[in-house]
Each structure stands twice: as structure tokens, then as C-alpha cells.
Write a structure and sequence with these properties.
The two termini are about 30 Å apart. Strands 1-2-3-4-5-12-6-11-10-9-8-7 form a twelve-stranded mixed beta sheet, sandwiched between helices. A hairpin with a 2-residue loop joins strand 8 and strand 9. The radius of gyration is 20 Å and the shape is globular. The protein folds into two domains: about 150 residues, 3-Layer(aba) Sandwich (Aminopeptidase), CATH 3.40.630; about 120 residues, Aminopeptidase, CATH 3.40.630.30. By secondary structure, the chain is α+β, with helices and mostly antiparallel strands. Helices cover about 30% and strands about 30% of the residues. About 30% of the residues are buried. Helix 3 crosses helix 4. It has eight helices and twelve strands.
């Protein structure tokens, strides 16, 4: 259970108080994130399940890795957290705030995050951790704070989406390819899925060591893994490709592709396109009005060209700001 005592955060402007995240804060935090999104994107791009998933993250300790800021009236006005998909030497973080807050609030939270990442390195027995924060292209104020704290742009990502105006036809499978739904009760399916995911993303920028245990831990922590929309592509009964959806955007009546991958030995046969179009047809069949995914704009496998060819278009772009943080005490 998260404690409710006030935290001392060096550099926090007067009039603001800080505590750790509680599940009771979920709706108040979501309101802050939506205000932040509207200011930078023009529309909300977050769901309550995303807030809860941060709290429940397999590599996030709410007692040490979250910060909730209230203004003088006691209203939640900022939220920050550290997360790691699979543990190891990489941490992601984010800081959301109402547009009207003192700029010093976010700056103080970044200082707190840097200090905590250094502690997390010690906790893991590492000499350093690579920390990554993301800034929407055009969010000059947040980008300036990251730069002031020693972070530098390393990569640009694009959020892409496609609109549906009704049902879509299911695609014809390539020769010898069949599609089937992942079975979360099958240990074999977990092992096969993990193997394809690791192989297909091994050459991607930022790929991290991911054990099967760490992968399952992340999924176990999610409110809606959406297993009914995880699809294998098999060739003669052998799994060679995956399309992994998430339920994060169901509140927005949308489908979301988290991971799309094909074993390197089976690329060039139209399997990725088939899986993607199969996912879109599935989303449209359940009444979704749009679907989306994220892509590294410098992806070496040609993913961006594939996504554009099936009708996806950029919704916005974000830059990854990174800094290597040495372990505390070193």
C-alpha cells in the first residue's frame, strides 16, 4: 500500500506538495494527462487503464518510482513516473503537468527522477542505466527541460493511425500461411511468442534483453492484455510471425498494435502485411473507428513503408531524449 505522507522534493516551487501515486488518484491523474495531451496534441491520448498499468508495472515501485503533485488548493496538477518494460539497464520516464503549473515543477521532478534512476542502478547491481524520456515534436518547453538536464535526442518516433468507416474485408493469407489466436493457457504459445518477438526485434534500435519471465511479468501486470487479438502466423503449423494487440485504447473505440514481427528467415513473403490487415479487419468487425501503432522512423526493416502502404498516416511524432546515468555513489 502506498504511503500518503508528503515527500521532500528539492527544487519544488513553493505552494506545491508531492506524494506517491495511489490507485485513488487515477481519475485525477488522467485529467492532468488529458490536459497535457490537449495542450500538445489537441486531443486526449491516454486512458485510465494506462494510469493503472503504470502503478502495477512489474518494474515500477509506486513507493519509490512515482510522484503526484498537488497545488495550493489540493488539486492534482502533475504526475511523474519511472517504468521499465523488462528490467535491465534501461528505464523510461515521463512527467505530465497541467499547462498552468510553474515550469519549476517539471524541472524538479526530472531532478528527482534522475536521482532515483541512479538508485535503481544500484538496486540492480549495475554501473549505469540508460534513461529515456519522450517529447512530442513541438513541445518546446518540455524539450528544453530535458536538454537542461543533460538529455539529448537520439531517435524520432511516429504515432500512426488509420480510420475505419465500417467493416473491412479479411485479407487472403499468403501461400501455406494460416492465422490462429494465441492461447494464454499454453506454455508452448508463450515460448513461441517470446522467441519470435526477440528474433524479429533483435536488430531494432533500443532493443533490450528480454527473458520470457520478464515478458510474462509485464503482461501479467496489465489490466487488459487483449489476448483474443494476439495472432500467430503459421507456415505448415510452425509459428513464424506475431501481431500483438493491446486493450489500452478500447476506451477510445480503437484497436492498437503493440508488436508486429516476423522471423528474419521468413521476411519478404507478405506475412507482416497479412497480419496487420487481419488485425485491422478484426478491429473493424468489433466496431472500432480507428487503429494505430508506433514506429521508429529510422527502422531498418522497412516497417514505415509497410505501414504507409496499408493506409496508416502520421498522427504525431515524438523524440526520444536519452542520458546515461551512473549508479548512485559512483
Amino acid at each position: 500500500m502506498v504511503t500518503s505522507h508528503t515527500l521532500s522534493v528539492p527544487g519544488m516551487p513553493a505552494g506545491y506538495t508531492v506524494r506517491r501515486q495511489s490507485l485513488d488518484d487515477t481519475e485525477a491523474i488522467l485529467a492532468v494527462v488529458h490536459a497535457n495531451d490537449i495542450a500538445t496534441l489537441g486531443y486526449p491520448d491516454f486512458a485510465s487503464t494506462d494510469v493503472v498499468d503504470v502503478y502495477n508495472g512489474s518494474h515500477t515501485d509506486p513507493e519509490r518510482d512515482t510522484w503526484v503533485v498537488r497545488d495550493g488548493s489540493g488539486t492534482v496538477c502533475a504526475w511523474a513516473f519511472i517504468a521499465s518494460n523488462y528490467g535491465g539497464g534501461k528505464d523510461d520516464f515521463d512527467v505530465y503537468g497541467n499547462p498552468s503549473i510553474d515550469a519549476g515543477v517539471r524541472a524538479a521532478l526530472v531532478d528527482a527522477i534522475v536521482a532515483r534512476v541512479a538508485e535503481r542502478a544500484v538496486d540492480r547491481g549495475l554501473s549505469e542505466v540508460l534513461a529515456t524520456g519522450y517529447a512530442i515534436v513541438g513541445d518546446v518547453a518540455w524539450a528544453a527541460i530535458l536538454l537542461d538536464h543533460g538529455f539529448r535526442v537520439n531517435r524520432r518516433f511516429s504515432r500512426m493511425r488509420i480510420e475505419f468507416d465500417g467493416p473491412r474485408p479479411f485479407p487472403t493469407a499468403p501461400a501455406r500461411v494460416t492465422v490462429r489466436v494465441f492461447d494464454p493457457a499454453s506454455e508452448r504459445d508463450w515460448s513461441d511468442w517470446h522467441g519470435i518477438l526477440v528474433d524479429s526485434f533483435s536488430e531494432h534500435w533500443g532493443s533490450a534483453e528480454m527473458t520470457l519471465t520478464a515478458f510474462r511479468g509485464r503482461i501479467d501486470a496489465e489490466q487488459d492484455p487483449n489476448f483474443t487479438e494476439w495472432f500467430f502466423a503459421d507456415i505448415d503449423g510452425v509459428p513464424v510471425g506475431i501481431c500483438q494487440s493491446t486493450g489500452s485504447f478500447k476506451e477510445q473505440n480503437a484497436g492498437w498494435v503493440r508488436n508486429l514481427g516476423v522471423l528474419s528467415a521468413y521476411r519478404g513473403r507478405g506475412i507482416a502485411r497479412f497480419l496487420l490487415e487481419h488485425a485491422f479487419a478484426t478491429y473493424a468487425a468489433r466496431g472500432c473507428t480507428w487503429a494505430g501503432l508506433g514506429v521508429d522512423t529510422q527502422n531498418e526493416t522497412g516497417a514505415l513503408r509497410l505501414y504507409e502502404s496499408v493506409g496508416l498516416h502520421p498522427a504525431f511524432q515524438a523524440d526520444a531524449y536519452q542520458r546515461t546515468i551512473p549508479a548512485a555513489g559512483t
